[in-house]
From TrEMBL, chains A, B:
Domain of life, per lineage: Bacteria
Function according to Swiss-Prot or TrEMBL: Acts as a magnesium transporter.
Annotated organism of origin: Denitrificimonas caeni
NCBIfam families: mgtE (TIGR00400)
Locations listed in the record: Cell membrane; Membrane
Alphabetical keyword list: CBS domain, Cell membrane, Magnesium, Membrane, Metal-binding, Transmembrane, Transmembrane helix, Transport
Record-level GO cellular component terms: plasma membrane
Membrane topology: Multi-pass membrane protein
Residue stretches making up the CBS domain: 235-291
InterPro entries: CBS_dom, CBS_dom_sf, Mg_transptr_MgtE_intracell_dom, MgtE_N_sf, MgtE_transporter, SLC41_membr_dom, SLC41_membr_dom_sf
Lineage, opening ranks: Bacteria, Pseudomonadati, Pseudomonadota, Gammaproteobacteria, Pseudomonadales
GO molecular function, one term: magnesium ion transmembrane transporter activity
Protein name: Magnesium transporter MgtE
């Protein structure tokens, strides 16, 4: 772990990025001209200039923080990305791999040989190694595991035994533990002997001989209390703790609510296992909000924006296929009423309005509900009250906006009865949208699914088919 | 600021919430029965039981962390919320007001008199007061400002002079500053005299006599280095700093990238103004991802899920109105081809498929691009490459899925030419969706707007009107 405080990395980042891009472009230009000419009379000069550019690029990269290099790698197309990746210092490789997105990491690892992978991974902590392991070849992981000592190997195994989003997979093992029956003076001297403290250390963990957590000693208290005090006099005895099989997002909410920087992870017996830190929680919150946005749009996962067309297709097909089916169903609903449309073709022009407004309104409701669910704000007692409110909003919207569009339809097609049917259909479809907007996410949760998953596609399917059916049905009954 | 570490608040939170709900329900039942009977023969007994329930509720609330009370308040309908709010200890009022969402805060403040407001706000720090001030009545703010000392008043004014999302409005003023020409031993003794350190203190700020920032002393280094070292030997001289007019989300990204816990805010001259802390950044990241989700669905702002129907209508009308206009435009596009639909009514049934798949695919593209923009991954050199990739994906999707649906149309309506038109229209509309999915957010950014704002409504408007026009236009040319 490098000490970020030593540098001032963010200000010149954009500048540096532009600099990297320029150097890459010059590099490409020469490469292309060599490829075009095919001759060798200029080769020597070109090769020299080429080398000079690469050396300059390497120098620029060496001055950058690993997180910044990760950022630049993500923003580069594949060929440029690999050129830069080759120039990065080996000792930074591991940390960069941890920082980049999954999709980009895949492209980087595909470009490394076994030797490079081992060199990149060997300086990582146990929890970091566990993060990387599933994406490395089996032999490499085997080799890395053998190079670890028993305790570390146990830690990697432990981290790998939990699901990605469980606390046990997110926690790290870099904690400072102390005993309760010593003075703060002794603790201070002990810390000095450690030479370095783990990042994000805002508290020390107080354990007994058996490794049971007795409390935590916030660094703040260590600093302001009399050095002659005993640890057990000053420590907090009932701190916020997490268990390794808890959900990571639950822990993130607790970090957010109680403004934590680090917290101990203990198993049921009370034995200290590891710790969670706020930087991991920040990453988790960011990832969650992103995957929610992607899920809602029907993207399976994070996509490298320069992914190949083929990869992108795979990522997008699942929901497109579902959407194709729902669209087909809506089309067949219209098919039922082809006879009516033949008689009154205005219906074809007006029906998308009913479906479209219903979809928009339903999306508003479902977004609200999914959000309240994510924050755990919905209890059984609340939901009927909530449904009543949403239905009320839908009804008023239906009467008012449906009335407006009904008026327009009347003027446009010179038929007040068509206008009335339009208003009635809008109101009914908005009520359907509100009902489904509440029921769909609740059903998803009851089925043990993520309520955000495909919520937009599902609600739109309901309001499309429903809207067409309601409008064309009413029209068939009352107008024909 | 209470010390969270002293309690173990999160585990029993759900339990406590259920407990609060039960007590509230019992309270309501008695209230209702009194209201129903109208008689007074049971009044004395009821009143006693009533009081007992409220006392029990108050006791439960007193044991909860302010952040937990805020959570419970947000999850309660308005009447229950105000009952609970009345029972909360006054000294927690300020902190709870800071924790709840804007919409809920409004309902709580509306229930307080001036005296209560002043009592709630008077123990807050300057930056917290500035957060609350815009929502308090002018007289109350005036009164509070007069009770502050000069320095604090200046801090509140400074915080109020920045926009909500600027660093200057987010920073706090609780920093520990030291001089560079003293030993660590002196620093340690100084800290002990302070009795308490601000939350999230992971570094001390080193300033000169003029208040210019010379560096930062991470607590980690203070603890592991020899107490006889001088501060300037150990401090980091070029730390990550922010300026007060920077964008808060930019700072949040830096916190995330460099795993910061706190960072100094300095003005251009180098003078130290305040500090940013990771807990504020976590809140910011969460808020941003929420407002992005809300914006995309066409909700103006965060909505209290138990808001009145009237409030909800106001929140949702802006985008519903825009959607009504775009739906009307799409309807008029269909109107242009009423003659064609009259001749071949199958067109009416098939056209929503073309529009719907286009909308879904366009939403996938725009979600990707908006995300890449939020991470600052799009440079001018990249965008044409990206457009080419999206067009490639769209073309393949169009040919394959358009082919499938074209085949179905052929079988269903027994017309291979109709099937061909369907496939061609699908492909063209997917290409339009890809083009607009890239161009809309880029144009938004060029106009200085948030690229996520209404992106879903805009792309759907394009793919609806465009899809109807392409499909019905091709059909009119080739089939009739």
């Amino acid at each position: 772990m490098s000490e970020v405080e030593e540098r001032k990395p963010q200000e010149p980042l954009h500048e540096r990025f532009v600099q990297v891009l320029e150097l890459l472009q010059r590099h490409r230009l020469i490469e292309e001209s060599v490829a075009r000419q095919g001759s060798d009379h200029q080769d020597r000069v070109d090769a020299l200039v080429q080398q000079q550019h690469l050396a300059e690029l390497q120098q620029t990269l060496a001055e950058l923080h690993p997180a910044d290099i990760a950022y630049i790698l993500e923003a580069l197309p594949l060929d440029d990305r690999l050129t830069v990746w080759q120039l990065v210092r080996v000792e930074n490789d591991g940390e960069i791999l941890l920082e980049v997105s999954d999709a980009v990491r895949e492209t980087l690892i595909a470009d490394m040989d076994e030797h490079e992978m081992i060199a990149a991974a060997k300086d990582l902590d146990a929890d970091e190694l566990a993060d990387l392991a599933p994406e490395l070849p089996r032999d490499v992981v085997q080799g890395l595991m053998e190079s670890l000592d028993d305790q570390q190997r146990e830690q990697v195994r432990s981290a790998l035994s939990y699901k990605d989003d469980q606390v046990g997979a997110i926690m790290d093992f870099e904690m400072v533990t102390i005993r309760e029956d010593v003075t703060l003076e002794v603790v201070l001297r002990y810390l000095r002997r450690l030479k370095e403290l783990p990042d994000q250390t805002d508290k020390l963990f107080v354990v007994d001989v058996a490794g049971l957590l007795k409390g935590v000693l916030p660094i703040k208290r260590l600093l302001v209390n009399d050095p002659d005090c005993m640890v057990h006099e000053v420590m907090a005895t009932d701190p916020v703790t997490f268990s390794p099989d808890e959900d990571g997002s639950y822990a993130a909410q607790a970090f957010e609510r109680y403004d934590l920087v680090s917290a101990p992870v203990v198993e049921k017996s009370g034995r200290l296992l590891g710790r969670l830190t706020v930087d991991e929680m920040v990453d988790l919150i960011r990832e969650e909000s992103e995957s929610e946005a992607l899920n809602r749009a029907g993207l399976r996962e994070e996509e490298d924006i320069f992914a190949s067309v083929w990869k992108s297709l795979q990522n997008r097909w699942a929901w497109l296929a579902i959407n194709l089916i729902t669209a087909f169903v809506a089309s067949r609903v219209i098919g039922l009423f082809e006879h009516s449309i033949e008689k009154l073709v205005a219906l074809a022009a007006l029906m998308p309005i009913v479906a479209g407004i219903g979809g928009n309104s339903g999306n508003q409701t479902i977004t609200m509900i999914v959000r309240a669910m994510a924050l755990d704000q919905l209890s059984t007692g609340n939901s009927s009250r909530l449904l009543r409110k949403e239905l009320g909003v839908a009804f008023i919207n239906g009467v008012i906006w449906g009335g407006v569009i009904g008026l327009v339809a009347w003027l446009l097609y010179d038929s007040w009865s068509l206008g009335l049917v339009m208003t009635a259909a809008m109101t009914l479809n908005l009520l359907l949208a509100a009902l489904m907007g509440v029921l769909i996410p609740m059903t998803m949760v009851r089925l043990g699914r993520d309520p955000a998953l495909g919520s937009s596609v599902l609600i739109t399917a309901m309001t499309d088919s429903g809207g067409f059916f309601i409008f064309l049905g009413l029209a068939t009954i009352f107008l024909l």
